[in-house]
Amino acid sequence: MKYHQRDIVEVNFLFPDGTFKPHPAIIVSYFDEIVDKIIESIF
Q: Which residues lie closer than 8 Å to 27 by C-beta, 6 or more apart?
């Protein structure tokens, strides 16, 4: 899936106790290769 500037995505936020919780994030800047690698590593 391609992401673009101003898209709202959901990322997993890691809490200190080791649990994860989904959190919305807005793409404010888009660098094709860098953002794709970051998004792929998160999911």
A: 3, 4, 5, 6, 7, 8, 9, 35
What residue type is 2 in one-letter code? K
Query: From CA 17, how far away is CA 29, in angstroms rounded?
Result: 31
Alpha carbons 34 and 23: distance in angstroms, whole number: 20
CB 27 within 8 A of CB 3: yes
Extract the residue ranges of the chain whose pLDDT is less than 50. none
* pTM, 2 dp: 0.48
| Rounded Cα–Cα distance for residues 43 and 33 (Å) | 16
CA angle, 21 then 27 then 29, to 5°: 140
